[in-house]
Design brief:
single chain; Hexokinase, domain 1; 6-stranded mixed β-sheet; 5-stranded mixed β-sheet; 13 strands; globular; binds adenosine-5'-diphosphate; fructokinase activity; ATP binding
Length: about 500
Amino acid sequence: SRWSDKQSKVLGDLAEEFSVSTSQLERLTTAFIDQMQAGLAGDQKSTDLAMIPTFVSGRPDGHERGSYLALDLGGTNLRVCLIALKGNNDFESHSKAFKVSDHLQEAHISELMDFIAISIRDFITSEHISSKIVEHPSGSETLELGFTFSFPVTQTAIDAGMLLRWTKGFSCPGAVGNDIVQLLQEALNRNEVNVHVAALVNDTVGTLLAHSYKHPNTFIGAIFGTGTNGAYVEDTRGIKTMTTPTTEEMIINIEWGNYDKDKRFLPVTIFDNKLDRESINPGVHVFEKMISGMYLGEITRNILLHLIDQRLLFDGTSSAKLNQHWSFETKYMSQIESDTSVTLIPIAQILEQDLGIYLNTQVDREIVKFVCQLVGKRAARLSAMATAAVIRRGLSVEGRLAGHGYPLKLSQGDHAIGSNVNKNGTNVHESTDSVVNQGLQPIHVGIDGSVFEHYPHFEERMVEGLTELLGPRTKDIVVLGIARDGSGVGAALAALIATKNV
Ligand code: ADP
């Protein structure tokens, strides 16, 4: 290498700090499973995982049919969708976005809800859309709607949820402490819009349901985008916080972004601590801050400045842009990691055009790429850890994943999948085909988010981590897939489940 001794030493130390060994992953997984258990038992003191019951108690298998509405309110855009489920794992989706003005974000909640009701009416009565409403599921003229509402709520039923607090710039009075579904239903009634709000859904749950329509028995829905979170299917007998479960399974919203907020297990570095301290929510969502799109660029920026300050990069010179918080976008990391040329000229272009660093040598560019690889790889391995923990939980609880044909009651220390034998005592075979032939179904994980979708090698690094944790057969059994539009088709499917009880 053309690195100086000092460069080699400092970068070697960084590599050490950012690598997460298999045994570290093991410890994190075990602690994650323990915290899932504590959350399900309602022991909130011993866990950072909220483990919220969603009241969604069933999964689609792709045969469902009918026209449903979905509504997504998560920021400055309101999106209304019509989903026509075709019944053969296929659906058609039409949507329209409406801008939520600054005024509406602070107006009284009844004004915001009236705006939503009227937007829905505009959408469903437009000629283009009304002709697409082929099948009214309930036989009546009322359309059923699933509502993805990306603000903190506590749910008491699939169609009831109280707003805890506003975030993301909203502050409408009259909403906090009230049932969001009821507020919307009243506005729909007031404006004589013939729509019934059937389900309130979190985006991870929508992702799980959307994926399940294409891949029945999807076990996990996960987001690796601006933030990160996951939802999975739990045996209701395992949910101690539910008094009288009436169904066998229920989707749990893990809220895993908050895992280990006290940093007892996570390999946090000074760069992570700096980011956390300077974030809008210090001390929480520490795990999310090591993984998701909002933060990876900032960790990288912190490391680059650390190298600059030791004169190991860019000859010790930063730029006004690079000195600014959050100026190094995660998207740049994707572009940098995909540059496989020898001279790394594309990286020079990012450094010059986006970051104002005009003097950079090829060695500088190699170092920048190296740093991105460290941060990106750690994120993918930690993502694998959370996913593996949920799968292990599923395999270790009697009854769960039973439909998949896997042996039950594997102990936690077991390399669950790797050491798996089926009921006949033979080893699980190599390929997904033979897995299916033996009556074992692949475990599908539906994933949404730009980081998973666009970050180079993210998936491959995740699979590597999963394999270390779950054993050599992982690739054949655990199937990661991109699940788009959880807030559209996923919410529509939640409305269907709520009204049909599939
Ligand atoms: P959201 O999670 O908000 O619904 P996305 O899944 O698109 O939306 O995630 C947005 C996040 O992904 C942002 O934090 C952004 O920095 C990051 N991002 C956008 N493009 C890329 C990319 N090409 N590679 C990696 N991260 C990206």
